[in-house]
Amino acid sequence: MTPLVDEPSIMGEIAACNVTNDIFALNVPEISGMLVFLAIQTSTPIEITEGILKGIKHFIEKKVNSQIVGGHTIYSGWPLIGGEASGFVHKDAIIPKSGVKKRDKLILTKPIGLQAVMAAYRLLKDFPEMLEQYSQQELNKAIDLAIRIMTTSNQQVVKIIHSYEDFSFIHAMSDVTGFGLAGHLKEMLQHSNLSALITKTPSIKLSKTLSEDLGYAFDDCTCHETAGGMLISVDPVQIEDFSDVLSRNGVKNWIIGEIDQFKPEIVRVSKDVQNVEVSEF
């Protein structure tokens, strides 16, 4: 991924969270190790490089209890930060991205709206006059919240799933990243002849208005996310219990819609969609 923030250690944490969430999305509860990939410019100050690596190391060791096992660094015209993570789980415990069933309810564990908020982060630094209509204090709160979201691992979601002796009520799961909420939900519908209806959009406070002002596609839920939440398709009989268990274990979550049979592999956003502004995470 390319840099989102100027603070090297925070950028390292975001990158590590984004990489490891791909493994957690398969219902793998532990990361066995991460290989780091870092592309830097020849003029990049050493303290920037060290800061990024320290951020990755801190996240991997302190937030997901794993380790850096190696990696690769190259020179590039543009900085790139990422890597590869691995983990082990019995094949029967893997939760696939596809597998949704009719009448399933959909749970999301992080609010959306990161793209517009991080655009505001950059504008505040480079073109603050473009955001004169906003309170700078409120913008900074939204940015701090976005960074907290992007540096919070989805590992706890997986550990909660594994606390169930039988978690077959979870039919499909994906993390939400570059394709946005609607894009990843469309992936979950592949080969199912089913569709999805989004009825609620939990979003970072100000992100909807920022999206409208800056030209991002918030209303159809296609805005890009980074290190976003887990999107989970759950049997309707178990939905309330599972949502409560997540909440009791410190994982915020929202029931955002359902699987139906409108047209194959179509994601719709309800005309009466409820946008829930989130100011704490």
Please sum up the structure shown.
This protein is an alpha+beta fold. About 35% of the residues lie in helices and about 25% in strands.
Can you walk me through this structure?
The structure is a single chain. With 281 residues, this protein is α+β, with helices and mostly antiparallel strands. Helices cover 35% and strands 24% of the residues. The protein has a six-stranded mixed β-sheet with strand order 5-7-4-8-6-9. A three-stranded mixed β-sheet has the order 2-1-3. α3 packs across α4. 41% of the residues are buried. The mean pLDDT is 97.
Q: Any key phrases for this structure?
A:
281 residues; 8 helices; 3-stranded mixed beta sheet; alpha+beta; 6-stranded mixed beta sheet
- Judged by helices, strands and strand pairing, the structural class is alpha+beta
SSE arrangement, N to C? HEHEEEHHHEHEHEHEE
Question: Regions with pLDDT < 50 over 5+ consecutive residues?
Answer: none
The number of distinct β-strands equals 9
Oligomer class: single chain
Biggest β-sheet description: 6 strands, mixed
Q: What's the tally of helices?
A: 8
Give the overall shape, derived from the CA principal axes: globular
Helix content: 25-40%
How large is the radius of gyration? 19 Å
Q: How big a fraction of the residues is strand?
A: 15-25%
- Average pLDDT works out at 97
| Major sheet strand order | 5-7-4-8-6-9
The CA-CA distance between the termini, in Å, is 24 Å
